[in-house]
Amino acid sequence: MVVENKEYFMAKWKEQLESEDVLIRITAKNFIGFFKEAETINEFNVEFFFNLVEKITVWNVEILMISFLDGSEIKSITEKYNQSK
Question: Model-level pTM?
Answer without folding.
Answer: 0.68
